[in-house]
Amino acid sequence: MSDCFLITGGSGFIGTWVLRELLERGARAVVVDSQKAPERWGRVLGSRSSEVISADASLMDCAALHSVIEKHQVTHLIHLAALLTPACQQDPFLGCQVNVLGSTAVFEAARRSGRIKSLSYASSFAVYGPESGRDDDNPNRPPSFYGAFKQAVDMIAEQYWRHFQIASVAIRPHVVFGPEREVGLTAGPSLACRAAALQENYAIGYTGRVGYDYVEDVARAFVRAATECPPGATVADLPGEIATTEEFRAAILQCVPGASSHITIAGPEIPANIPPNPYYITELFSDWQTTTLLEGVQKTIDYYVRSNESIIDRR
Fold first, then answer.
1. End-to-end alpha carbon distance in the chain
2. Which residues neighbour 64 within 8 Å (Cβ) at sequence distance 6 or greater?
3. With contact defined as beta carbons under 8 Å apart, do 247 and 212 qualify?
């Protein structure tokens, strides 16, 4: 029987691309998500979306998660489900329940199963503050509840390795961009790519210099981390390509020169979230290849051009 992956949060943006990576590898995929199968699955996965199994289980119910693992003979686990920064800031208690207790339930279900010895899960650059964090007088601390919850999960993962030998790799992307990214302030560059492809107007709503990770790289990172997990509780930063919002816009215009009047920038500067002591995924996987910003922008634009042509053809 082929490998079977349980993916929490598989209906989301990154989760959808993780599913595509798994299906292309010939693996079985089971999704636990409070959202039902989105239309996005059809666009990204095509007819293979029917192969994905949606399990009726709550992230907060450890016993139900354990039952899903047993029923489908799950061999690997990828944990992506979480409430994002705005929801955690608005309701920290709910954010803690979902992000911290829910993550603990995932680790515990893996432990109880006896069949899952390692997993990958989503950490975040939100655990880092804007400081360098290289000395005691200038600590690097998460600036939000979301970041604090992610940091707590990283520490919980360490305990599950220490006491139960459940190995894990936490993947920390920065700003993830690519086709189908639609939600959140940092979705702006992805939506700008779509607007350029469709010759529509769009204003990216922030400025600043951050790392950009193309979504297919991120999906591949989660899958490789789940299947090639080393002993211990490892935290791997994705390298991304550091760029300003203006440089991202320039990449769009290089791909679609006629979009200069369509794509603009207006908004506040977002924090850089500086990792004081980065451990990049290239140290975990020596053969790791990163999609450049320009390549990722071109792939995103091409995706929307093809999607638009398909819609026109159907008409």
1. 42
2. 57, 58
3. no
Token digits for 58?
């709550």
Residue corresponding to tokens 């302030």: 185
Radius of gyration of the chain (CA): 19
CA distance 188 to 204: 5
How many other β-carbons are positioned within 10 Å of the β-carbon of residue 48? 15
Integer Cα distance of 57 and 280 in angstroms: 34
State the residue for tokens 């655990």. 127
Pairing type for strands 76-79 and 53-54 reads unpaired
Q: Which residue has the tokens 């086709």?
A: 179
CA nearest neighbour of 255 among 307, 189, 205: 189
CB 68 within 8 Å of CB 45: no
Q: What is the pLDDT of residue 163?
A: 97
| Residue found by looking up tokens 């992956």 in the block | 5
CA distances 59 to 35, 103, 272, Å, are: 12, 8, 31
Please give the Cα distance from 56 to 1 (Å, whole number): 23
**b/e for 294-311, b at 16 or more Cβ within 10 A?**
bebbbbbbebbeebeeee
What does DSSP say about strands 209-214 and 241-244: parallel, antiparallel, or unpaired? antiparallel
Q: For residue 231, how many other CB atoms are within 10 A of its CB? A: 10
Q: Give the tens place of pLDDT for each residue, 164-223.
A: 999 999 999 999 999 999 988 899 999 999 999 999 999 999 999 999 999 999 999 999
Q: Is the dihedral of CA 26, 28, 33, 35 positive or negative?
A: positive
313 by Cβ neighbours in 10 Å (0-12 / 13-18 / 19+) ranks as exposed
